[in-house]
Write a structure and sequence with these properties.
- By secondary structure, the chain is of the alpha+beta class.
- The protein contains two helices and six strands, in the order βββαβαββ.
- It has helices at residues 47-64, 84-97, and strands spanning 4-10, 18-24, 28-34, 72-80, 105-111, 120-127.
- A four-stranded mixed sheet has the order 3-6-4-5.
- The N and C termini lie close together (6 Å).
Length: 128
Amino acid sequence: MTNDRITHIPAPVVPGISDSVRVTSGELIFISGQVGFEEDGSVPEDFARAIELTYAELERALAAAGATYEDLVRVNVYITELDQEKLAIWRTTRNSLVRVAEPSASTVIGVHSLYNGATIEIDAIAAV
């Protein structure tokens, strides 16, 4: 089953922000918090690298459930010490990794800390 977007309303003030509503969906897949660590278990020093590894974990979890980025309907992104610089790095890196015609609804949330010192964590809902 496809996930049909019925509205995509650009926000009047903040570029890149929109209200999105999906009214039909298939079976839901809930993906718990995904965090990207280096192969040795360490937290990447470079924030863009942390984003890449975290999205790779999200993609792995989606694939295990028979889904892709196209199937995402909701994404929550948690970033420690969130500021405009980190937000810009996240947007640029995410856009280079997640290339879909109709992005899912999403929220970026600044948090104090994450598991094992991670700087980014993602949870998501997909519909297949």
